[in-house]
Here is the input.
Amino acid sequence: MKAKGRWIVQLLIAILIVILGIFILVRQELFKQILVIALGIVAIVTGITSLATMNRYSFNRFNHMTTLVKGVLGIIVGVLAVIMPLATGEAAWTVIIYVLAAEMVLGAIVMFIDAIAVRSAGFPASPLVTEGIVSIILAAMLFLFPKSVADLLVTILGITIIVIGMTVGFVALWIRKRNAHVIVGSAETVSGEKS
Here is the structure.
């Protein structure tokens, strides 16, 4: 793609990003349903990943069982998170928030237990510990303020996406302006050389 046409693509992307941010702010309930479904998909993927990588480490029987429970529970909760918002709408939102928070707590406990086993086997445990801490923090926020946290996060996300879109748009316009000066400057240089 030519350099002078890139700013148009960037500007179109910026407009789409701003429209997405406005959609998030205006249609918060629909976006929450989409978000719960996305979290459900993440829980399914995380559960499958836990089951798939379980044999990579030499866990004892207890760690093997806890990882198995975490993986299966993640898949079940993920499937529920995908299906329930589609079936029951707003009532499912609060239930799913609490179920996801409980699954995050259980998953964090399993990650801490697995981190001890992984570290004793000589592998780095910091990714598991970090993921466990993040899960505990998110779960605590969801348990304490399910509706408030959801509304606040959706509003912050919408505003952030709008700001990002506007920034991308301003950068695209700046690139256009800079390229216009380069083209004008090079045209003056060429005409000066001819005379």
